[in-house]
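Sample log: Ribosome-recycling factor.
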Amino acid sequence: MGENEMNTPAEIISDVKKRMDGGLNSLKHSLNSLRTGRASISLLDPIKAEVYGSLMPLNQLGTVSAPEPRLIVVQVWDKESAKAVEKAIANAGLGLNPIAEGNVIRVPIPDLSEERRKEFVKKANEYCEQAKIALRNVRRDGIEVIKKLEKDKQISEDDMKHYSDEIQKITDDHVKKADEATQAKAKEIMSV
């Protein structure tokens, strides 16, 4: 934990909670980038286009909107970068076929095949598993610090057990939320 060593159990628990919240937010962001049958502008979040020699996220190159349930539109601000944006969307491996009309790029959202939906659900579960590993690592770190406090006689053995249990409860809560978010996403992906 470096310089500003956390020493009170309350600070340790607060840090554990903050890090686990960050892990959950990261999972939710990953889940949002998975495609369902509906147009969602977050679908294009992971895509970067090569413009002026550097990779830039699409939302820094234009306005991204979903005017219809099955259509995403990217209004590119600089006509020069429209080709690069179109190419980036086409090559993103999301099965999208953008249509450029000047500096407006229309991205129709095709129906997802059953097979493709199952792949996305599998990916959602992978994201969830990664998040759970991260949550367990945070739990382990937190409990190690609490045990060290007890070893250094800064807290009693009862306190150590109490705070370790509290960290376990926080972990269980976050794991449950990760599962719920993933199940909701899977349901959304599979609903036709």
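Observation: Strands lie at 48-51, 54-57, 62-68, 71-76, 99-101, 104-108.
Observation: Helices lie at 9-32, 82-90, 114-151, 157-190.
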